[in-house]
Amino acid sequence: MSLPGRPEGDYRNAPHEGSPVSAAPAAGIAGRIAGTVRADIRELAAYPVANAEGCIKLDAMECPYELPEAVREDIARAVRDTPLNRYPAADLSALEQAVKAAFGVPDAADVLFGNGSDELIHIIVQACCNPGDAVLSPWPSFVYFDMAARFDHARFIGVPLTTDLTLDLPAMLAAIREHQPKVVFLAVPNNPTGGLWSDEDVQAIIATAPGLVVLDEAYQPFADRTWMPQVLDAPNVVVMRTVSKIGLAGLRFGYLAGHPAWIAELNKVRPPYNLDVLTQATLSAVLRHKPVLDEQAARLRADRGPLAAALAQLPGVRVFPSAGNFVLARFSGKLDGNAVHLALKTRKILIRNFSNAHPLLADCLRISVGAPAENAALLSALQEILSA
Ligand code: PMP
User: Fold this and answer.
1) Which atom of ligand 1 is found nearest the CA of 219?
2) What does the sequence similarity comment in the record state about its family (predicted)?
C-alpha cells in the first residue's frame, strides 16, 4: 500500500484510512484517540503491503515457485488430521527437533518459534529493553528493526552504511561504544541492499557489543555463509531465521537459535500459543520434503547473477552486489527511481521503491529474483521504459 501523495517507505504522518463515518462521533473519536494513542504511533502508517492482484510480484522476496503436488498432498493430510478445538500443545519438542535437523541448528542450542521472525524481533526487544534503551543496526536495513524498537519503547540507532552501501565498521563500533545498545540487529545478508558483511566485521561487532547481537539470516539460503554452527561460540549471539524466503511466506514461521539460557529468557515474553496448530502441522509436513525447498532456493540463487548482469547492462543502472534472493539497483539515467517504479507499476510489475526511504537509497529499486519468465518480463519492460 502506497499512501496517496506519500513516497513509498515513508511511514510518518499517515492519514487515517478507515471507512467514512458521520462527523459527530468521528470528532469525538478523534479527540479520544488524540488523548489516548501515543503521538508517535498516530504519526505512523501501517506496514505497507501492495495490492498485487494480476501483477508480476517481485516486491517482497517471496519464492515464486509453488510446492509440488506430493508436498501439497502431505500438507492436506496433516491439516485434515489436526484438531482445531484445542489450544496448541505445550510440548513442541518434536517440531523443535525437526527444525533443528532440517536447518543445521547445533544440538546444544535451543530454538524459539515466532509467528514470522517479525514477532521474534518484538520478543527480543521486549525482553531486553527498558524504555529508552538503545537498539542498534546498520542503516538502511530491515525497516521492522526500527519499527519494533519504537513500538516497544526502545531508542533506535541506525548507523549509516557507506555510500557504496557497505558496512561502515568504524562507525558501527563507535556507535556501539557510545550508545551501549541492549540489542544489535545485523541482517546477514542485509535487506534492502543485499550486501553480506564480512566475518571479521561481524566478529568485531560481536566482540564490542555489550548486549545481545541478533544475526538475522532471513536471506541465508541464498548466501554462502551461515553463522549457525558458531551460534554458541560467543556469549552474546543468537541466530534468527525465517521460512518466508524459501517458499513459505504465507505460513508465518520464524525461529531463533541460541544458547538455552538466552532462549529461556526470551521465551518468557513469547505470547502464549503464538504458533498455531495449522502452521505446526504444515511445517512438519513440508520439512519432510526439505530438499524441495533447497532446490527452489538454489534455482533463485542461480538466476540472481544473470538478472543482476542484465540489469547492469541497462543505461544508467547501477546494481549493488547481492547475496540475497533480490537485487538493489539505482536508476540514474533519463528516468529516476520513482519514474521507473511507476512505469513498471503501470505495466503491472511490482518491485519495491526505496527512492524516498533514505538518502543512501536515492533512486534505488529492489527487485526480487522471480521465475525465469517473470525476470524476462521485467527486463524487457525496463528496456522499453529506459529506451523510450
Ligand atoms: N528479517 C529480514 C532481514 C527481513 O527482510 C524480513 C522480511 N522482509 C524479516 C526478517 C521478516 O520475515 P518474516 O516475518 O516473514 O519471517
Assistant:
1) 3
2) Belongs to the class-II pyridoxal-phosphate-dependent aminotransferase family. Histidinol-phosphate aminotransferase subfamily.
CATH topology of domain 56-63+291-387: Aspartate Aminotransferase, domain 1 (3.90.1150)
Cα(118) to ligand 1 centroid in Å equals: 6
In whole angstroms, give the CA distance from residue 255 to residue 250.
15
Ligand 1 pocket check for 329: Cβ under 6 Å: no
> pLDDT digits over 36-72, tens only?
999 999 998 887 788 899 999 999 999 999 999 999 9
pLDDT at 12: 45
220 lines ligand 1 (CB under 6 A): no
Element (H, E) at 215: strand 212-216
For residue 116 and ligand 1, the question of a CB distance below 6 A is answered with yes
To test the ligand 1 pocket, which listed residue (118, 137, 214, 245) has its Cβ within 8 A of the most ligand atoms?
Answer: 118
At residue 365, the 3 state secondary structure works out as strand
Q: Which of ligand 1's atoms lies nearest the C-alpha of 117?
A: 16
Of ligand 1's atoms, which has the minimum distance to the CA of residue 243? 16
This prediction has a pTM of: 0.93
Q: Is 187 in the pocket of ligand 1 (CB under 6 A)?
A: yes
Does the beta carbon of 191 sit less than 6 angstroms from any atom of ligand 1? yes
Query: What is the percent of the chain with per-residue pLDDT over 70, rounded to a whole number?
Result: 94
Structural element, H or E, at residue 172: helix 169-179
Closest CA to ligand 1's atom 1: 218
Ligand 1 atom nearest the C-alpha of 121 is: 10
Residue in 232, 230, 238, 235 with CA at minimum distance from that of residue 254:
238
Q: Is the pLDDT of residue 220 over 60?
A: yes
The mean pLDDT value of the chain amounts to 93
Quote the pLDDT of residue 254: 98
Residue with cell 561504544: 177
Q: Where are the domains of the chain?
A: 56-63+291-387, 83-288
Q: Does domain 83-288 have CATH number 3.20.20.70?
A: no
> What is the tens place of the pLDDT at every residue in 325-375?
999 999 998 899 999 999 999 999 999 999 999 999 999 999 999 999 999
Distance of CA 225 to the CA centre of its chain: 18
Report the separation in Å between the CA atom of 204 and the middle of ligand 1, taken as the mean of its atom positions. Answer: 24
CB of 143 sitting under 6 A from ligand 1: no
Task: Using DSSP bridges, classify how beta strands 326-331 and 317-319 pair: parallel, antiparallel or unpaired.
Answer: antiparallel
